[in-house]
Amino acid sequence: MWLGGGDVYREKVSQDCVMGLPQQPFLFDHEAATRAVESTPVWSEVEFADTRVTRHDEGLIVIGYRAHAKREGSDYHAVCTSTLQRLEHENWVVIQHQQTPFGVEVKDPDAA
Fold first, then answer.
1. pLDDT digits (tens, 9 = 90+) for 25-70
2. Alpha-carbon gap, residue 101 to 22, rounded angstroms
């Protein structure tokens, strides 16, 4: 998903997904996340580290990892979690995703 655009999000992100991202509006649903990806250049490469995968229940996987993504003029490091639900054999969708970037202060939207 890191290297894909809107088409990937439409296919692989659940309609009732919740995403916590370090930009306005901070909490995204399926449509808002898809629009954000469509209006942003895709990453040209991504590397993962410290990957942890847990299977809490049949058909439910939680993934935690550090991501280092690059695109022209941009370098991004974050710690992420994603929860995936299996719809059918080998067909998984993201139902939750969260990113916390390293070295970036996220402004409190309620601060004066």
1. 899 999 999 999 998 888 999 999 999 999 988 899 999 999 999 9
2. 7
